[in-house]
Amino acid sequence: MTEDEIYRTSTQYRLWSFTPETLASLRTTTNTVAADGVRNAYRSLNAGGSSENVAGERDGEAEGYVDCLTVEEEQKIISFYCRRTLEFVDFCEYPTNVKATAVQYLKRFYLTNSPMTYHPKEIMPTAVYLAMKSEDNFHYVKSFAEKLPNITTEDILAPEFLLTQGLRFTFDVRHPFHGLEGGFMELLAFTNGKGQCGPQVDKSSKEVRDDMMDIEPPPGASARATNVKELVARIQKAHGKAKEILKTSALLTDAYFLYTPSQIWLSTLLLADEPLARFYIDTKLPVISEMKAKLHTVLRNCAEILRLSPTAQPDKEEKKELKRIDKKLAQCRNPQKMDLVGIHKAQKRDPDHNGGNGLDENIAKKRKLERETSMKESESLFGPALPDKAS
């Protein structure tokens, strides 16, 4: 079984890989459903005779009208909280894989959920906490909550099951970091005359090492490497740039949804040192190859997405726009989904009913049916309960 075949069996490929068109369509559908839910929620409040709501009075509220976020506005606010996630994980000094997984959890969740339904500010801490457990970097929830101001353990645990539902109970995230490290080691091996080319490339290790000395200089450099030491320094520099792109741009864009991990890390190498990246690909595929031409096209498209990634810190204009969107979001949140802690407590007290706290009635009925079925199965296995002595 090849690596490609192994990757195609992963949940990341089967459930979280899209074309640009299907990704845009999914986000549009999520936005439409959430907006309808918000408006219906306010109509229900008004029908019940309520004269006020959580977000305050609004013109046109009597008709259930709410000025909801657009798809573009949703993506801007989600992107902002992805950047906040990076800052928080760096502040806590958690490993890079925790940071990367937490951001992907957040992005995956909001493919089928809207900030109008669940505010990213409330989901973000839970995404980080779940990523810590998934990446084998467990901390007790109490010690984790202490790192966040005005956050309790209940605030972190309440949305956890909701988040896992949004993730479709798939916690594995395939990152491109290992691929980059492997490519880096291969390039260094070539400088020592110990590397190995692909099966379709008929070149010895020594020939490859000699060819490396003739690689065009990277952008900004005036001359080729003249010795192995300079060549190693060039590879290390490219590796550092590519790794930084993986830790920022790759996480803040849709690259994980649109490309495979190997395509992503090769694209970062293309951005860091294009001549070196092209040389590496030449060691794997023959000079005349239809696959190579397709690969170059894919990598350039991916590299363009990474190049246009939002910066780690929003500029003045972006901050102004984010403030406007945040104010708008405060006026169009679903009032039935705002108190996640209260909903969580209500579900634990009365799992068969929503109690007016936002638990979907169909889900409650399904859970009740599952419990009844389980009880019947246990009776068929061990027999019915023994009658009371009095009877």
Structural key phrases:
mainly alpha; 20 helices; 0% strand; elongated
What features would you describe in this structure?
With 391 residues, the protein is mainly α. The chain contains 20 helices and no strands. Helix 4 (71-92) packs antiparallel against helix 5 and helix 15 (261-272) crosses helix 16 (274-282). The longest helix is centred in the N-terminal third of the chain and has 28 residues, at 20-47. Residues 50-63 and 353-359 have low confidence and may be disordered.
List the helices and strands and how they pair.
Elements: H1 3-8, H2 11-16, H3 20-47, H4 71-92, H5 96-112, H6 120-134, H7 141-145, H8 153-157, H9 160-166, H10 177-191, H11 205-212, H12 228-247, H13 249-252, H14 255-258, H15 261-272, H16 274-282, H17 290-307, H18 316-331, H19 340-349, H20 361-382
